[in-house]
Amino acid sequence: MLELKDISKTFKKKGTGLSVQAAKHVSLNIPEQSIVGLVGESGCGKSTLSRMVVGLEKADSGTIALKGKNIDYRNPRDLSHLRKSVQIVFQDPNTTFNPRRTLLASLEEGLVNKGMGKTDRLKKVRDLTDIIGISYANLEKYPHQFSGGQKQRLSIARALLMEPELLVLDEPVSSLDVSVQAQIINLLMDLRKEFGLTYLFISHDLHLVGYVSTLIAVMKSGEIVEQGDAEQILFEPKHSYTKQLFASSPIIH
Amino acid sequence: MNTNNDIVLKIENLSLKFHTPGGIIPAVEDFSLSLRRGKIHALVGESGSGKSVTVKSVLRLNPETNTEYTSGRIEYIPSEGEPIEILSANESTLRSVRGSKISMIFQEPGRYLNPVMRVRQLLTETMMTHLKVTKQEALEKAKDLIRLVELNDVDRVLASYPHELSGGMKQRVMIAIALSCSPDIILADEPTTALDVTVQAKILALLKKIARELNIAVLLITHDLAVVYESADEVSVMYAGKLMESSTSGSLFKAPQHPYTRVLLGAVPDISRRGQPLLSIKGNIPDSADRPTGCIFSPRCPEARDFCSLSVPAFESLGNNAHGVACLRTRELFRA
Amino acid sequence: MRSMDTIRTIGRLLLRLLATMLLISTIVFLLLRLLPGDPAQVIAGIDANPADVENIRNSLGMNGTIISQYLTWMGNIIHFDFGNSYFSGRPVSTLILERLPVTANLALLAMVFTILTAIPIGVLSAVKRWSIWDAFGLLYSQLGMALPSFWMGILLLLIFSVKLGWFPLFGAQGFNSLILPAISLGLAKSAVLVRITRISMIEELGKPYIEAARAKGLVDRRIQYVHALKNALLPVLTVTGLQLGGLLGGAIIIEQIFSLPGLGRLFLTGIYQRDFAVVQGSVIFMAFLFSGINFLVDLLYALINPKARIS
Q1: What is the mean predicted confidence (pLDDT) over B134-159?
Q2: Contacts of A13 in chain C (CB under 8 A)
Q3: pLDDT tens sequence across C75-87
Q4: In the complex, which subunits touch A with 3 or more CB pairs below 8 angstroms?
Q5: Whether CATH 1.10.3720.10 fits C101-272
Q6: pLDDT higher than threshold 80 for residue B95
Q7: Is the pLDDT of residue A163 over 80?
Q8: Which residue of C has its CA nearest to A14?
């Protein structure tokens, strides 16, 4: 589906002359219909990587290929192709919607840009909100009238309206309560079956990543230190950092 | 076995309300809890559970202008001298307890340390407020405290401003400040939530060591059951301002009794159950303005019956004193 | 480590100061030369003889190529030489130095008045929010901002000099003669600063570290005046710095009302008399003074706020 090859990216820290390598020769393969879990601690570069995957950030070197075709970031057609096929859901659902617009207006927006007619748009929104479990009638409300979990459902709906093949989930449940987290995780698993989606699931929580993923990549200071089949990483981790993460992550036996 | 002599703090039937422009909000209702010396007691809950409000009540840190303590007592029992009832204590008594007998650490250490003061000053001012020490003595003690929280390079840390330290170091500094007057109790409000897991593990280990070695009671506020499992001796589970279940950590994780505790545990991802759906709770945490009648959890409870929305369950202990539950169906749902 | 940061910060600020001063000098140099008309002709009058005009042009440093004029100009500025006044024939730099103490004392006194009134009133307003103290603070700042300083000056003169006779009516007769001008000059600044102090203090008092300080058992006074105030003063200091510059401008008007022989009067007289050297000299000098003050304020800011030191 998507292949990152030898990606590097360096950020300069303003005023200090120091630079941070957010990605060092990262190669990552996301096969069709897989769930690739990307796990690492804050500042390891996992969010930068996700932003590069959706075309919000440009790599300094290396290539990103979508279905075998290299994406040229300077080519607007390539970029719009990437943005059509790949959508992202962010961590904080409270900041992803314009507070002054109704949810319906926010959800419709992407479809308007696609040039879809009013009747088709509303039908599509209605179909999808049924699936994600929000009543269509409620879409006339504004973001602050929804709970965090409902807003996260709606941001997933907004991403799915664009009919992506790959969905990047950047810490999708980190800001939610435990009881709501489970709802969202279960919903994501159902949606994948229903639409045949591929996920890049990014989280700092090794157990959560382990629970949902088919493949896992462990990232530390801009490098992927270990990647492979989920079962293998979970039950026979090789790299010392993966082991350290396991030892540090609290768990109920 | 625990004796009553170990008890250093008793919260009894605490209820409090917030007065807001939108109306009166009941934040905590009929809540009780005891802390023992040398033990970590975890207070678990989701957002809106009232766990932070409860812990702040212990030092009466909730804004005085709009907080109304409607009932209950909070009693601090020092090893020597008379017990102090916090809710009725006068300002000077309260100040002599704050930071000295009962101290507090917070979720985001970066925002809770004054940005324009050096660590040295932040540490010594507490000691100079509460202990009869000279500046020189306080400074010497500050060095010991920095070592106690396992930070190297003592002089550099003392001369630093908070922003010059990492998140984990800041939390250690916060703990050092909390320890500076040899308290009986440390209140820890989500102390590791803002930290990376590798740092979290070290801070939790430090808190455990402090509780054991210095015989301090720690009240650990958290939303993370795995953190509770790994560090707490006793647990209280709160939901929407009410106590649902309370027990020793061992008993609670082995045989959780309240349906809420059970679903909460089932919602934690466990890699040995990959591929199965997580146990999820329908609906959302109740709005403070629109609270359900009867058992507060009944609208979301998988085990609820009609009568659950009619009467409020009392908090009752199960056979042995250590384990208590507030559920109308406790006996039917009992699991050993 | 720390001292290196401080040195780097001072270096960076100094560099900015020098660059600003260079820019100011160049702009003033260009202004006179880009304006239509010949200043020398203007000074000499329309029917002066060409030799006189040439003389004046020489004294203004406006002969030769533009490059050589510029170099001479910059060289003179470095030596604090702004040429001679056309009317009195005395060096402009001497005139400035003669007048400077009056303006400097006036501005300084106004600043002291501003700080001594604004910070206590603002802090009291914030600490005792929604009380009678706060109401007074807000009324003070409302009035101070609404009343123009020249009107204030005339009012003060009428009451305290004419009616009560406590202060001299005009002229520079020592400290006493500066008090009324300083108050009328400082009042508007003080009114603004009360607002800034109040808001800044209220914001700081709501921050998490204040809650932590309360949890430490510190007394309210220490929490308010050590913990909160130190942070609240950062924006106050920035605004004060900018105001100090503004006081120099305000002094021009106030010096007129109170007949004080300061820089402002020198400048105004220069304009009336078309004394270019004097006008140029005062403008450059005041601009330098303004940049110098800002430099000092930034430096002070960096010393108080540890975070500002590197960035």
Answers
A1: 94
A2: none
A3: 888 888 888 887 7
A4: B, C
A5: yes
A6: yes
A7: yes
A8: C311
Report how many domains make up chain A.
Answer: 1
Provide the token pair at C303.
Answer: 């010393």
In a mutagenesis test of the A interface, which of B229, B265, B270, B280 is the best target, namely the one with the most A β-carbons within 10 Å? B280
**How far apart are the CA of A73 and the nearest CA of chain B, in angstroms?**
33
- Rounded CA-CA distance B37/C76 in Å is 79
B179 has a chain C CB within 8 A of its CB: no
Tell me the two tokens of residue A114: 């696609």
Contact A92, A105 (CB under 8 A): no
CB contact under 8 A, C209 and B111: yes
Q: Do A208 and B269 touch (CB under 8 A)?
A: yes
CATH number at residue A71: 3.40.50.300
Domain boundaries, chain B: 261-333
Q: Does B117 touch chain C (CB under 8 A)?
A: yes
Q: Is A253 a member of any domain?
A: no
Residue A15 pLDDT > 60: no
* B247-277 confidence digits (pLDDT tens): 999 999 999 999 999 999 988 888 888 888 8
| pLDDT of the residue at C243 | 84
Cβ neighbours of B55 (radius 10 Å): 22
Q: Which residue of B has its CA nearest to A210?
A: B271
Where along chain C do the CATH 1.10.3720.10 domains lie?
101-272
For residues B98 and B90, the answer to whether their CB atoms sit within 8 Å is no
C1 band by pLDDT with thresholds 50, 70 and 90: very low
Chain-chain contact of C216 with B113 (C-beta, under 8 angstroms): no
- SS (HEC) of B122-181: HHHHHHHHHCCCCHHHHHHHHHHHHHHCCCCCHHHHHHCCHHHCCHHHHHHHHHHHHHCC
Helix (H, G, I), strand (E, B) or coil at A147: coil
**What is the tens place of the pLDDT at every residue in C41-58?**
777 777 777 887 777 777
The answer to whether residue A152 scores a pLDDT higher than 50 is yes
- The Cα C95–Cα C99 span in angstroms is 6
**Backbone dihedral angles phi then psi of residue B202, each to the nearest 5 degrees:** -70, -40
pLDDT of residue A73: 79
Per residue in B179-213, pLDDT (tens digit) is 999 999 999 999 998 899 999 999 999 999 999 99
- ipTM score assigned to the predicted complex: 0.89
Which residues from C are below 8 Å from B130, CB to CB? 217
Kind plus residue range of the DSSP H or E element containing C19: helix C2-34
The set of chains that have 3 or more CB pairs under 8 A with C is A, B
Report, as an integer, the average pLDDT of B129-146: 94
Tell me which chain B residues have a C-beta less than 8 angstroms from the C-beta of C217: 95-100, 126, 129-130
- Whether the predicted pLDDT of B61 surpasses 60: yes
In the block, tokens 């908090």 appear at B315
| Distance of residue A12 Cα from the nearest chain C Cα, in angstroms | 13
pLDDT at A240 over 90: yes
CB contact under 8 A, A186 and B280: yes
* A51 within some domain: yes
- Measured between CA atoms, the residue of chain B closest to residue A134 is B283
Residues 65-104 of B with CB under 8 A from C: 95-100, 103-104
**Phi-psi label, residue C80: left if phi above 0, alpha if psi -120 to 50, beta otherwise:** left
Q: What is the pTM of this model?
A: 0.84
Distance to chain C for B116, nearest Cα, Å: 6
Which of A181, A212, A230 faces B267 most closely, judged by CB atoms? A181
Q: Which residue has the tokens 């033990």?
A: B39
Which among C2, C216, C227 has CB closest to B126? C216
Cα–Cα distance, C76 to C68 (Å, whole number): 12
Report the chain B residue with the minimal C-alpha distance to residue A133: B283
Band (pLDDT 50/70/90 cuts) for residue C310 is very low
Average pLDDT of the segment spanning C268-273: 85
